[in-house]
Write a structure and sequence with these properties.
Shape of chain B: globular
Radius of gyration of chain B: 16 Å
Distance between the termini of chain B: 29 Å
Low-confidence stretches of chain B: none
Oligomer: heterodimer
Number of helices of chain A: 20
Number of helices of chain B: 8
Number of strands of chain B: 6
Largest sheet of chain A: 7 strands, mixed
Amino acid sequence: MKRLMLGNQAFARGLYEAGCSVVSSYPGTPSTEVTEEAAKYDEIYCEWAPNEKVAMEVAFGACLAGKRSFCGMKHVGLNVAADPLFTCSYTGVNAGMIICVADDPGMHSSQNEQDSRHYAMAAKVPMLEPADSAEARDFVKKAYEISETFDTPVIMKMCTRVAHSQSVVEEQERVLPEKKPYVKNIAKYVMMPGNAIRRHPFVEERTRKLIEFAETTDLNRVEMGDTKLGIITSSTSYQYVKEVFGENASILKLGMIHPLPEKLILDFAAKVDKLVIVEELDPVIEEHCKVLGLTVTGKDVLPLEGEFSQNLIAEKLGVEVPASKKLDENLPGRPPVMCAGCPHRGLFFTLAKNKCTVLGDIGCYTLGAVAPLNAMEMTLCMGASISSLHGFNKALGEESEGKTVAVIGDSTFMHSGMTGLANVAYNQSNSTVIILDNSITGMTGHQQNPTTGYNIKGDPAGKIDLEALCKAMGFERVRVVDPYDLAQCDAVLKEELAVAAPSVIISRRPCALLKYVKHEKPLKVVCENCVGCKSCMRLGCPAISVKDGKAVIDTTLCVGCGVCKQLCKFNALQNR
Amino acid sequence: MTKNIMIVGVGGQGSLLASKLLGHLLLTEGYDVKVSEVHGMSQRGGSVVTYVRFGEKVYSPIIDKGQADFIVSFEKLEAARYLEFLKADGRIVVNTQEIDPMPVITGAAQYPADLVAKMEALGAKVDAMDCLSLAEQAGSSKAVNIVLMGRLSRYFDEIPVEKWQKAIEDCVPAKFLELNQKAFLLGRG
């Protein structure tokens, strides 16, 4: 049956059809739906791992045991999983293993714009790059074949526009691969120096064989059109190139991005008058062509940053773009905001009120940095809040200890906050760490994690007790607050900052968007009481605005959390 | 010839159902279809945009400036924001609802006045209607998306109304079907 599928959904379909048995991932936009969709197939064991390193090691263990396996992550997740990646390149696999990495050119939902293709080169593993949903499904099957034929994990690189675009896929049946029994092989799988030194030549030889494969595989294809212009491209850039040039250029579309073919590129180059490389982010194909001695146009005209589009490519390559009209006025922006009723809001308000220096982390609560709260001063990567706070306090001592905190979500804490907290406990800094426990992984769209008590399918699972965990690490001061209770948050924060000992505050209330969370009735404004002081506006709640000098509650947004009520000295905000 | 529909609005307004409906409908009509959406950070009450493209063969999943045959906007300011994506002879179908963005809420900016007239002054064909009232009339303020789809359907002579209704049946949970069919017809007018 023909269906419209997200690239990620098609990827999951490919895993199902190719007989994948074990999936372990950590959510991250734009990769999350591959695993969520895979979990809908009962034939595949799926799980959310605490982080990408764990996920990749689980997938490796499963392929070692003889089952086709998969792990998925966003580009920055591959940084976390880089350790197992570089060495499972040496061990190779037993059954096939695929790693999905999803880049985010344009940074729709990311903290950097790194180009994951460098990982394939650095770790010396093959990388495939589909350009739409149908290819995502097909390439999964090919990736497993490559993995098993060449004894290597295979990376499939997605990007936002392939992962989150729907295009047509025709479903096929699931075919189980032949059995691959586990065989003890110490020389292959125990990567101590004496063994690893013998595996390195294997890796180099494998790359040579993969280059030969790249010359003839149908993953790479030539579409001859007008030969005045030849374009080498891949992924979503191919779609933009086709949109702009159609048959007016010849195209070499690369589906295998590492290793790159040599003869195929040289032959193509010989057939065209001018050669242009169209690739988002870094000049990976371009540098390869230059090494082959070719003269090419690429990053001299196309940008290194941001995502491409048909107009961008047209404009940079001298093709006319359609005219457009723009309103001649500055329209107010609409940045993302914390939702009405978000449990993070009350806590961030308290931090702002106490003029705390807040070292933050990755999640919805990074929005604590935006106006009007402006209550976060650093965000680096998953888990960095706690470790950076420790460093900050070691550097400044008493100068910072009483007013500086780390904030980290429950899922991010499980991902890589625990090790930072262990460092605080071990090397003893007088740090106050706040775990924002909203009982879910929020930003990526509500995935379960080790603290929620449920697994990826929503069934009951192990549940890590945050208080017990912190106490076991040696924290004597572990406090729990309700972020809807501003007075309590304020009192506990002041106490923990004042005390000369490391402490953890758990700010606990489930995400207001969770289906099981029951909302109160929207608040009402008692107009005769409202003096228009705008105290309630300091929260930055999207449900409150001021019209004609009085507060107005948007009843379609308000969930009755009552935090604003606590700020009103005139009793103008009341329950219905 | 590829046709382009942009759906714009505020994160959480239900644009994903609108694009799902369009994608399903256009695929059953035999077109090649691509639908592109953004997830993650942008969904948290921010400005959101979804691209729907259909035709004999669609390449790019996104719509660029000057290319949209239709901009379907869940909110007035968002229609104005994406105006430059409209084709010279394109049409805007817009819900006249105003949702204040944070800079307006905090008083750092004002919600711009007379946006529909300003867009029309630039030559855009604007079909503006109060979809929120119609959605409430149908039974739920959440049905704004289907009211807008009803309005959009007026401009597709080649697709009979029954096909739209069948697509709604395929895409909406049974318990909300009646409400949504009503919303569709109210929007279509």
